[in-house]
Amino acid sequence: MVHEHHFGQAEPQAGETRTRLVVILTAVTMAIEIVAGLVFGSMALLADGLHMASHASALGLAWIAYVYARRHAHDTGFSFGTGKVNTLAGYTSAVVLALFALTMAGESIHRFIEPVPIAFDRAIVVAILGLVVNGVSVFILQGRNDHNGHDHGHHHDHNLRAAHLHVLADTLTSVLAIVALLAAKFYGAVWMDPAMGVVGGGLVAVWAWGLARDTGAVLLDRQAPVEATAAITKSIQSGGRFRVVDLHLWSIGPGYRAAIVSVVSSDPCSREDIAMLVPDNLGIAHLTIEITTPEREG
Beta strands of 196-273 (E only): which ranges? Predict the structure, then answer.
């Protein structure tokens, strides 16, 4: 029987449902703001509605990744299943977040040089509306960041994390905007508006870098944390019968890893003898074991 490699990706993920709800909420808010902006002639509402459109697109990408990974989970063209589809979407979201951060910072610096009139009351209302919507979205996505709960190097659902960072970035933008607008309106500190934009852009850039670093490591099959590989080596070599000479351990999807272990043994043994020694708390869904003798090693 051919060993299947879907590793649970054929089932709907918890993050898929949450992300879909946030996409719907964001899309409805976007439509309301754009229509209201056109009807009432408010550029502030129209601009925020268009911003929501880009936000909905990014979140839509995360949802599409979940659906694609689930529907193609049994596709044998994917060597280790479709788990990395979610990681790829997460990496793409990191790039989008980075561009968002650059746009925020660039526009803010431009407004330092060339200030523009601010319709404080309308802008504050829009910012509060955005804060409420994004606050609800954060609450929806805040549920447990799905992972397998293993002890050595948790490997999370990067797609859900990316969606969460998108709404968190938008929430941060709304909070900073409200603070800056109130300070400008009541204390005349107009400089606070672009200053908060620079601060927000910097924070979003840090989040984007962290997400890009973690998802990039998965996409490039980076070796798992040394604690995890050391645990495997120690467990296999504990009885003195086997010696680990080569070990590869990497993530193949949210909560799942693959491992290739090369072992030298002077006594006759089977793959099962070694497999039973591998810790079961590392999320290893695909294990390949190579057994050789000291003579062949030489």
Answer: 242-253, 256-265
User: What does the pLDDT read at residue 272?
Assistant: 92
In whole angstroms, what is the distance from residue 69 CA to residue 146 CA? 16
Please tell me the chain's helix, strand, coil percentages from 3-state DSSP, rounded to the nearest 5. 65, 10, 25
Overall size of the chain counted in residues: 298
User: Pick from 199, 219, 239: which residue ends a domain?
Assistant: 219
90, 215 contact by CB (below 8 A): yes
pLDDT tens per residue, range 245-261: 999 999 988 888 999 99
> Is 183 within the bounds of a domain?
yes
- As a whole number of angstroms, the distance between CA 46 and CA 30 comes to 9
Q: Which residues contact 139 (CB under 8 A, 6 or more apart)?
A: none
Cα 216 from Cα 250, distance rounded (Å): 12
Pairing of strands 256-265, 242-253: antiparallel
Q: Are 139 and 233 part of one and the same domain?
A: no
- Looking at the structure of the chain, the number of domains it has is 2
Residue 116, helix vs strand vs coil = coil
Residue-wise pLDDT tens digits, 200-232? 888 889 999 999 999 999 999 999 999 999 999
Q: What residues make up the domain containing 249?
A: 226-297
